[in-house]
Amino acid sequence: MSTDSVAAAAPSHAGDVLQLVDPAGTLNEQTAAGMLDVTGELVRALYRDMVLGRRFDQEAYSLQRQGELGLWLMSLGQEAAQAGSIRALRDDDRVFPSYREHVAALCRGVPPTELLSQWRGSSHGSWDPERYHFHIYSLVLATQTLHAVGYAMGVRYDAGDGVVLAYFGDGASSQGDASEALNWAAVTSAPVVFFCQNNGWAISTPASKQYAAPLAERAKGFGLDAVSVDGNDVLAVYAATQRMAERVRAGGAPGLIEAHTYRMSGHSTSDDPRRYREDAELARWKAHDPVERVRLLLTARGWADEDYFATVASDAEELAVRTRRECRALPEPSLSDTFRNTLCEETEALRREREGFETFKESFL
Amino acid sequence: MTAAATPAGKDAEGKATTTTLGRALNEGLRQAMRDEERVVLLGEDIASLGGVFRVTDGLAAEFGDRVVDTPLAESGIIGTAIGLALRGYRPVCEIQFDGFVYPAFDQIVSQLAKMRARSRGLLRLPVTIRIPVGGGIGAVEHHSESNEAYFCHTAGLRVVACGHPQDAYDMLRAAIACDDPVIFYEPKRRYWDRAEVDLGRPVDSGTLGRARVLREGSDVTVAAYGPTVAVALNAAEIAAAEGRSLEVLDLRSLSPLDATELRRSASKTGRVVVVHEAPVNVGLGAEIAATVMEHCFYDLEAPVERVGGYNVPYPPARAEGDYLPDLDRVLDAVDRVCAS
Ligand SMILES: Cc1ncc(C[n+]2csc(CCOP(=O)(O)OP(=O)(O)O)c2C)c(N)n1
């Protein structure tokens, strides 16, 4: 099951790493058997998610460079981990993301501009979590893992059959909240799946300096079920998440998926990855590109032709153009709204302060 | 919603009965849980033990798994309460002692307080955080702290402190019914204070944001909250015997402050003494003094005096008598403002 190539480039990981498609696009029929019905339709859909997600990320990066966004946290290289996991859930399963889950958010239908709004400085969290069953981003690392567990406790109270998924990173796994969440989920049997995108780095700190015991092993120590997957293999991620979610949905213990992946970009647009990582490492991971191997699989199986790839590419271009146009048209936030939204009902004190601000501002008109 | 049964603390005619502040809180929780089944309690040792102060006594027996003995993890208590609230529940968290709220500080000030504004008003976080607060019970370190200023400084939270049994009952129910996060301080040395309490009252949201005059007076306003309300009342009693008329204002709501009531009283008496247990440095008294100064400057006969904890870590229990604002220190401050 494990492939040396992934293991060599990835940080330490627990036992076997599930892989269904290797970097050359070859499907391991034996491993896939009984796990996943690999159809052309499924692979095409996942391929499209990844291509669109990558193009969107690239456009956001450019927008930042042109001064349209204050900051951008790139998801380049993590498309398979995100598309594979989110598509394995039911649309009404609730997701608590960290801050880099742009591909997953797009898959849930979050409008591109609402994803950019926070980074442009137009809001602190734009979309309606109820509408997309996808919570707003959490910037304080690992806090959302506890929100996910609490939400899952509520699902249990409601006798619902929903599953809650929390994304977090290898760096975030060192936070106390992450450990509290794993432990809490285990003792309450909350229907939650923790999904760690282990992209090898927390800004400049490698995973090897982050922890000594593999994350999946740690999760088992808390009493969770845990698996390691090749996070650049969208089918492996999809299969593992689907299995885990179904098991949890049926009342099994909560689980953790550690997806070994790699951010092929810097941490954010403020980062300089050349200061801490070797070119060779990047080159090694480029050979594991999550999008490329699916393209090879689709071609080899005859599940997609040039027309199909051209259509996906032009849809991606369209998304980019739309994103750019709508980003520039994002409305300016109003401080008055912040006063109004601080509490459910604006208090006397807030109202007086807001009116003071508004009067002062109007005096300049 | 379940039909409300007769509250345990009420007598056969449904009249007010005498009970302790701790018991009034217990009845408040019970009534809130009977009225609204989405109220759930989270805390350490709150189920079979009933909490270390027994405020949740008997609730697990009545409400089963709606009373959760949590893992020993304060960030987890608040973090999961946020998740429950997002799911439509109304969690009431118990922090065992004031000094143990700090591990949850981030979840409270960065997550709970800000999520509504962050979501541009889309999300509601009806979470109540009960914290036994203050000293005077001879406790070991980290069991006697007054940390209200940290939370009052954070927008998005309501911070309240009850000072006597009837308010304990009314304010707790109002806090649980409130759609905003509420930090609810319970004065731990007053848990055993008794008073007549009407346990049949409906929820009155007005008890949450409004100060209340407990004793009318004309010479000096003594503004207090939580554990120092009783000290202020006591001072007023003694001052009256000496021919001085003190107005005692129980602030109740610390954030937002009821500035209207504060201004009214300060303008009337022209002299203000603020009494709280927390260190005076950058404490709530400074905010109160500034509010009074800003709005009542020309009505004032003397500078606002603050009586509070000294700017030292909370001392060992055997020295707390000197640290806590007591009758003498309050009356001393009253003398000072009257001398001006
Ligand atoms: C509590 C906290 N400390 C520090 C930061 C600053 N910070 C932002 S991202 C980051 C690295 C996170 O790494 P990881 O969890 O592996 O996620 P990744 O960014 O690699 O996806 C740091 C240190 C933060 N956001 N929150």
Written overview of the protein:
The complex is a heterodimer of chains A (365) and B (340). Chain A has a six-stranded parallel beta sheet with strand order 1-7-8-4-3-2, sandwiched between helices. A two-stranded antiparallel sheet of chain A has the order 5-6. Chain A has helices at residues 4-9, 29-32, 40-65, 79-87, 102-107, 112-120, 129-132, 143-157, 176-188, 207-210, 215-222, 234-249, 279-286, 290-301, 306-328, 335-341, 348-362; strands spanning 17-18, 94-96, 164-169, 192-198, 201-202, 205-206, 225-230, 255-260. Chain A has 17 helices and eight strands. Chain B is built from 13 helices and 14 strands. In chain B, helix 7 links the parallel strand 6 and strand 7. Chains A and B meet through helix 8, helix 9, helix 16 and helix 17 of A and helix 3, helix 4 and helix 5 of B. Bound molecules: thiamine diphosphate (TPP). Thiamine diphosphate is lined by residues 100, 139-141, 169-172, 199, 201-203, 267 of chain A.
- The topology string of helices and strands of chain A comes to HEHHHEHHHHEHEEEHHEHEHHHHH
**Rg of chain A, please?**
21 Å
Distance, first to last CA of chain B = 57 Å
Strand order of the largest sheet of chain A: 1-7-8-4-3-2
- How confident is the prediction overall: mean pLDDT of chain B? 95
Structural category of chain A is alpha/beta
Q: What's the main sheet of chain B like?
A: 7 strands, mixed
The rounded Rg of chain B comes to 20 Å
User: Biggest sheet of chain A: strands, sense, closure?
Assistant: 6 strands, parallel
Strand fraction band of chain B? Answer: 15-25%
Which regions of chain A are unreliable across 5 or more consecutive residues at pLDDT < 50? 1-14
Number of discrete helical segments of chain A? 17
| Category by helix and strand content of chain B | alpha/beta
Number of extended strands of chain B:
14
What share of the residues of chain B lie within helices? Answer: 25-40%
